[in-house]
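Appendix B. Extra example for self-study. Work through it before the problem class; the solution is given directly after the inputs so you can check yourself.
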Amino acid sequence: MASLKELKGRITSVKSTQKITKAKQMVAAAKLRKAQAAAEAARPYSQRLEGVVASLASKVGVGGSPLLAGTGKDQVHLIVVANGDKGLAGAFNSNIVKAAIIKANALIAEGKTVQFFLIGRKGKAVLSRTFPGLIVAQYDTTHVRTPGYDEAQAIAKQLTDLYEAGQFDVAHLFYSAFRSALAQIPTEQQIIPVKVPEGGVATSDATVDYEPDEESILADLLPRNITIQIFKALLENQASEQGASMTAMDNATRNAGDLIKNLTIQYNRSRQAAITTELVEIIAGAEAL
Amino acid sequence: MALHFELVTPEKLVLSEEVHMVVVPGTEGEFGVLEGHAPFMSTVKDGALKVYATANAEPRTILVEGGFAEVSEKGLTVLAEKAE
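Solution. Structure tokens for the complete assembly:
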């Protein structure tokens, strides 16, 4: 049985751990509200852009842009994995990576070539161990506190450059969709070639004037659409990360509380035992006289 | 007579209000949009949007970057990457 001093030491150490997890939980809760608001604020733009792209694409037809039509091949798949930079968020990062690995294995089994593009620091270790040599590029987000539109633009630029250089045929984006603080769903989305939502908008039959022509507007909008998809994923990821972090830290705080309770009981019992032993010794000594 | 005008950036919905007229710097020249404008789509070059709240009011200018304008029966929607 541990000595009283050891027990006391353990209780103090668990208490200070609990303080840290509690602080992290509150920070995550505050950040979650912000991240959620940002994700909601971005919705109108992406909805409208999607609507416009859908209505234009249905008019122009798929032939025009390679971003819409694809390269005509289906061989090289690029898997874009958007992760966070920090841990302490429960299974947030590993869930995304797991989903990406399942997809990659399925594609490899079909005989496709798979490559990885990583956003964020987490997940690199696992992926480079599971698929050595397949990570073609990485976008570092450690220098910014909250990835925003500029980062999304930089990532989209890198992706379209790789695409135009013929490095890959199809790109899938993996991120975590935010449902609530308790539920974040690892989600897969094909971003290149752009998937047009079928019959997404009921455009009126009125003839619309285009300036310049439909093709050039579409060519201008498609890269922007990819950017906005990535931006949306980044925002969802942030909200998910904070939500996961909040839940994980809440659990940790509660576990620490349980541990403290048990240790305190044990401590008090040992203390009582020690006192009893001491009394018995004194009484026994007195009787012996 | 009011035109419903919305200015949207990826970060947020910047403006959503009823105005008299908006002059948009299209890539092929400026164009003004009043209520009842025919359906129209255009890319927008970097420049200043002029928003006229009423017919005689001084215009309010909003700088936009990387934009796109759509006029439908619902009004004018400008999607811009940046607006200030």
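Self-check: Chain A has two domains: 4-22+250-288, 41-247. If your reasoning did not lead you there, revisit section 3.
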